[in-house]
Write a structure and sequence with these properties.
With 332 residues, the protein is of the alpha/beta class. Helices cover 28% and strands 30% of the residues.
Length: 332
């Protein structure tokens, strides 16, 4: 039995942010992790993630603004630089399908550029006839550093961390409140949640020089997020195909999908004329996705559920952690 006022189950980015927010407010909190912090079985590992304001929904733009403030606060508290802002290019065949209207409504800065103008400014292959929306408040968050900063700052505020601690039943947790941030393992506790888990593939490519803006390319037919790329602190470029992986059980072993690596490399060859399109590395990341890619943040008795991934959640960790912490505090 684990006793605390609040037990946070799952020490990925969302659980760590929640534990930090609770401990910062003086709550008695224990953070449990079935592996070790920083493991590569879930959704929180890796060196970088895209941060951006550009979203087609105003509520996500506002949530991103709140999260930026949270990242800056964490930087100050931890004494570590976490954000590297080189902007974002959103590539769309029709500006109406992208983030223009939501950014306008949120009074966020942006530029709409023709394909030719964008190609003149950056070595990025924007398809002919498409539009590039440039949003300067974007780039990357140093994911591994940010994750560790949340954990270390939570511990500094008095939280306890128990690694290599697998929980089979929430009944084993002696706590006034349990916050479940178990990522792809959340259906094991709540099989009725409308989520499914996929194993996604990302690839890395050699690129020197100054970092370029992150890139999100929307699908011309579905208007969904299709391909993306961002700066990698080691190799220079990280790229992936969004929501392209196979549905899996999180306990299944499996490596990068060779067909996806090939697809990603082909996109990089057309999008980055100054990059060697032969991948230097590839890895996997788990997505736990809801049908509309929005997040599950709900309370069931003494339990608060936080399933905030869907392949785009990491950037929102400071704001989501605060929300889950407030929901937990309401139970105490």
């Amino acid at each position: 039995m684990t006793h605390a006022d609040v037990v946070v189950l799952g020490a990925g980015i969302m659980g760590s942010a929640t534990a930090h927010a609770l401990a910062r407010e003086g709550r008695d909190v224990t953070l449990l992790e079935q592996f070790r912090v920083g493991h590569d079985h879930g959704s929180s590992h890796g060196r970088s993630r895209i941060v951006r304001l550009a979203y087609p929904e105003v509520e996500f733009v506002e949530l991103a603004k709140e999260s930026f403030a949270g990242w800056r606060a964490l930087e100050r508290e931890a004494g570590v630089a976490l954000l590297e802002l080189n902007g974002l290019l959103e590539l769309v065949d029709d500006p109406a399908q992208g983030s223009r209207d939501a950014l306008e409504a949120a009074r966020a800065e942006y530029e709409l550029l023709s394909a030719e103008t964008a190609r003149q400014r950056w070595p990025v292959g924007v398809p002919d006839g498409w539009t590039a929306l440039f949003q300067p408040e974007a780039g990357i968050v140093r994911a591994d550093l940010a994750h560790r900063a949340f954990v270390d700052c939570a511990l500094a505020h008095g939280a306890r961390l128990k690694e290599d601690t697998r929980v089979e039943s929430l009944d084993d947790l002696d706590a006034n409140c349990v916050v479940v941030t178990a990522g792809p393992w959340v259906p094991a506790f709540f099989p009725d949640l409308p989520v499914h888990t996929t194993r996604e593939t990302v690839a890395y490519f050699r690129r020197g020089g100054q970092p370029l803006p992150s890139v999100v390319q929307l699908d011309a037919v579905t208007r969904g997020h299709a391909m993306y790329s961002l700066h990698d602190p080691v190799h220079g470029l990280k790229a992936g195909a969004h929501h392209a992986g196979a549905t899996v059980d999180p306990g299944e072993d499996g490596g990068p999908d060779p067909r996806l690596v090939e697809r990603i490399a082909d996109w990089v060859s057309h999008t980055y004329p100054d990059v060697d399109s032969e991948p230097v590395a590839a890895e996997t990341c788990m997505y736990t996705t809801t049908p509309d890619e929005h997040f599950v943040l709900e309370r069931r008795g003494r339990v608060v559920i936080g399933s905030a991934c869907s392949g785009h959640g990491f950037k929102f960790a400071p704001a989501i952690g605060n929300r889950l912490a407030r929901m937990a505090a309401d139970i105490l």
